[in-house]
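Hello Y.,

Per our agreement to keep a running log of every chain we model this quarter, I'm adding this entry. I've kept the format consistent with earlier entries: sequence first, then predicted structure.
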Amino acid sequence: MKDSKIAIWGAGGFGREVRAMVETSFPSLDFQGFLDDDPTLRTCSDLKGIEYLVVAVASPTARKSIVDRLQGVQNGIFTSLVHPDVFLHDSNSVGAGTVICSGTKLTVNIKLGRFNIINLNCVLGHDVVTGNYCSIMPSSNILGGAVLGEGVFVGAGATIFQNVKIGDHAIVGSGAVVSKDVAPHTTVVGVPAKPLIR
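Predicted structure for the entry above:
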């Protein structure tokens, strides 16, 4: 039986993946449709009657912009979604609006900020801390004690070594191996990861 109405903001690829997660793994949630800045992609006219809203947009900057616009009007409607196959130890905390996808492994004492995306098959080690609006793409490995600032984007298959600090709004390229701290607003790529020179 469907108990609660849910909508997804973001009708792109990740939004469609989140819809599939809702429909296959959360039988009590009744998917009402997509909202999107592009009106041609909307399948839900407004938030009337919607009890829960997930912002499923991969870009940290775009996700924050959407939340900032909606928060004053719809504060309290945002929900987190954690796939049922993700084990959450009692020592972990997950901020509001965060999405954690199937296959992800979290160990202990992990603190995830608000509106994070942890995509498929990621591993987060002990004592990892993330700021708000981080995006961690599929098959990334964040080792114990690593700290990600606000709005950090971690590309698919990247590895961040233990106790490394990634500054606010930094980008870690796909497949990068990060063994040293990364300054805010810096893009690093390669093995070992180095700042991208443009």
